[in-house]
């Protein structure tokens, strides 16, 4: 799937495609949102769920390296390496 095609879809369609075909990478939490990062084909997608009403707030393509770094900076690679 091309990024441009995904970007033009409705929010609900983006969410359905991401949940059904995306690969879950990790999750994060802020004061207001649960955020889930997926890999969908060759790009990353963030889904934001409002903590207070458990509804979809936003979904977008994430390609900012600084934002992506915040997801991986806390990963413990020792656990992954011990399974090899």
Give a summary of the structure in a few sentences.
With about 80 residues, the chain is α+β, with helices and mostly antiparallel strands. It is built from four helices and four strands, in the order ααββββαα. It has one domain: 2-Layer Sandwich (Viral Envelope Glycoprotein, domain 2), CATH 3.30.67.
Tags for this model:
single chain; 84 residues; alpha+beta; Viral Envelope Glycoprotein, domain 2; four-stranded antiparallel beta sheet; 4 helices; 4 strands; 36% strand
Present the secondary structure layout:
Layout: H1 3-7, H2 11-21, E1 23-29, E2 33-40, E3 43-50, E4 56-62, H3 65-72, H4 77-82
Describe the structure.
With 84 residues, the protein is of the alpha+beta class. It has one domain (3-82): Viral Envelope Glycoprotein, domain 2 (2-Layer Sandwich). The protein has four helices and four strands, in the order H-H-E-E-E-E-H-H. It has a four-stranded antiparallel sheet with strand order 1-2-3-4, sandwiched between helices. The longest helix has 11 residues, at 11-21. The protein starts with a helix and ends with a helix.
Number of strands: 4
Structural class by sheet pairing and helices: alpha+beta
Query: What CATH architecture label applies?
Result: 2-Layer Sandwich
Q: Kindly report how far apart the N and C termini lie.
A: 31 Å
Residues in β-strands, percent? 35-45%
Mean pLDDT: 90
Measured on Cα atoms, how large is the radius of gyration?
14 Å
